[in-house]
UniProtKB/TrEMBL annotation:
InterPro entries on file: Glyco_trans_1, Glyco_trans_4-like_N, TPR-like_helical_dom_sf
Domain of life where this protein originates: Bacteria
The protein, known as: Glycosyl transferase family 2
Keyword Membrane among UniProt keywords: no
Coiled-coil ranges from the UniProt annotation: none
Glycosyl transferase family domain location: 292-418
Length: 465
């Protein structure tokens, strides 16, 4: 079984079907997490896809398990160069050259380029992006573009450090078991990622209003520091529940970026006094990476998200129940894994009781979401709260018609033609004749939901600090 999977995986890889290949390797790794070939190819695949964090994880895993390998060392050089750590990138390139003659000219050129970047960056403003390991999904495009003007380095906080140091300090502080002075003392005596970032940078960007932000806000102000708050942090206890105030000392930060006006409003309505430099910068897409295709009215409805109660999938089932009464060809395609066992039981129970087994397909995790979207006519979003969701933006940029539940703050982003309040309204938007793929992509551009506009706003914010 494994040998057949591996054969299919390698053949897919050789055909350039990288995401399909990884789908096979992922199945192999689920059976044997230390399969040598699966780890090796996974590192190469994610490197080619420029999914730097995952490429780094697999390359390091390979070296830890199987020892030196010039290809893995070259990958790590590329990752560290992207992350702005040019000194460490140079070390990995040198290791790669030491262990191989094949491809040495290529690696030698990369080594020279990393050394050149290091020299050129010395006169640039230094921006440290501090983010928990695995929580950097929204940073890489920004880092790549901002690096044209600044020296940007990503500082990833390892999971153990995040939970056993930063989270522990935030919790103990929140329970009044530690005073700010003690937090500062503990921060000073223990090695940690935030300390390294503060020593290196001119400006520190903390991604997510997290326990790292709590600790940063209790330190004496030496470097310009700001936090970017997305959505879920606005409802977490470490942000807002310490004697009805915030664990984060917002006034001791130089600025805050929100991704939506509605989330900012929620925070302000709780009486939180934010820094003077508080701005809203919407998310942006790199449209060069989002393929467009003319589509038309049809029967295939896509629903994409991690499946949790907030995503409100049961509302999508109610809509489907109405649609199949009109035409049994309507199908709901669900891409995403269940994150809540009880909710999974409930949803699958509803599908059976509503006799929708032939009209609802659960795909689980989808490796190649671009290919998955190919035959879909609509994106249905049923969440009862969002920040500024990427899945809707990406679908619209592909030319897919959005049908969006009118969650609080939705009108900040979407015109009424895309919103529904009731099942009847959702059904009407799906069955009506109105469909204009070019309009949906143009809408993203007109709203300035592009990486270019997002980067410009970030630069203006950074320069204002």
């Amino acid at each position: 079984m494994v040998s057949e999977l591996k054969k299919e995986a390698i053949e897919s890889f050789r055909r350039g079907e990288l995401k399909k290949a990884y789908g096979f390797f992922r199945r192999i790794l689920s059976e044997n997490p230390e399969d040598k070939e699966a780890i090796y190819y996974s590192a190469v695949i994610f490197h080619r896809l420029e999914r730097w964090r995952t490429a780094k994880r697999f390359a390091l895993q390979y070296l830890r398990l199987f020892g030196s390998d010039p290809s893995m060392e070259e990958i790590l050089g590329d990752v560290l160069s992207f992350e702005g750590d040019f000194k460490t990138a140079v070390k990995w390139y040198k290791k790669s050259l030491k262990h191989s003659h094949e491809g040495s000219d290529r690696v030698r050129n990369k080594l020279k380029e990393a050394q050149k970047k290091l020299e050129e960056s010395l006169d640039k403003k230094k921006i440290a992006v501090v983010v928990a390991e695995g929580a950097d999904a929204f940073t890489d495009d920004l880092i790549e573009r901002l690096s044209e003007k600044y020296w940007v380095r990503k500082f990833s906080v390892p999971k153990k450090e995040y939970y056993f140091f930063f989270s522990a300090l935030a919790v103990l502080y929140g329970r009044n078991m530690l005073k700010p002075l003690v937090v500062r003392f503990l921060f000073s005596i223990f090695p940690n990622t935030l300390k390294r970032a503060l020593r290196w940078a001119d400006v520190v960007w903390i991604e997510w209003a997290s326990p790292v932000a709590v600790v940063a806000s209790l330190l004496k102000r030496k470097k310009k520091t700001f936090v970017r708050l997305h959505r879920y942090e606005a409802f977490r206890t470490y942000s807002f529940l310490k004697e009805n105030s915030s664990l984060i000392n917002w006034q001791n930060l130089d600025g805050v970026i929100f991704v939506s006006e509605s989330v900012k409003k929620i925070v302000e309505e709780r009486g939180t006094k934010l820094p003077e430099k508080t701005v809203v910068i919407h998310n942006g897409l790199n449209l060069e990476k989002v393929s467009f295709e003319e589509k038309s009215k049809g029967f295939d409805i896509g629903w994409v998200a991690g499946i949790i109660p907030r995503k409100n999938l049961h509302l999508a089932l109610e809509i489907m129940g109405r649609l199949v009464q009109i035409d049994t060809r309507y199908t709901l395609h669900v891409a995403g894994e269940f994150k809540d066992e009880l909710y999974e039981i409930y949803i699958k129970h509803l599908v059976k009781e509503m006799k929708l087994e032939n009209n609802v397909i659960f795909y689980g995790w989808v490796d190649d979401i671009d290919a998955w979207w190919k035959d879909k006519n609509y994106i249905l979003s049923t969440s009862f709260h969002e920040g500024h969701p990427y899945n809707i933006m990406e679908a619209m940029a592909k030319g897919i018609k959005p049908v969006i539940h009118n969650f609080p703050g939705a009108r900040e982003f979407y015109d009424d033609e895309f919103l529904f309040n009731s099942v009847d309204e959702a059904v009407q938007k799906i069955v009506e004749e109105d469909y204009d793929s070019k309009r949906y992509r143009d809408y993203v551009i007109e709203k300035d939901w592009t990486i270019e506009h997002q980067v410009k706003a970030f630069e203006e914010f950074i320069e204002s600090l």
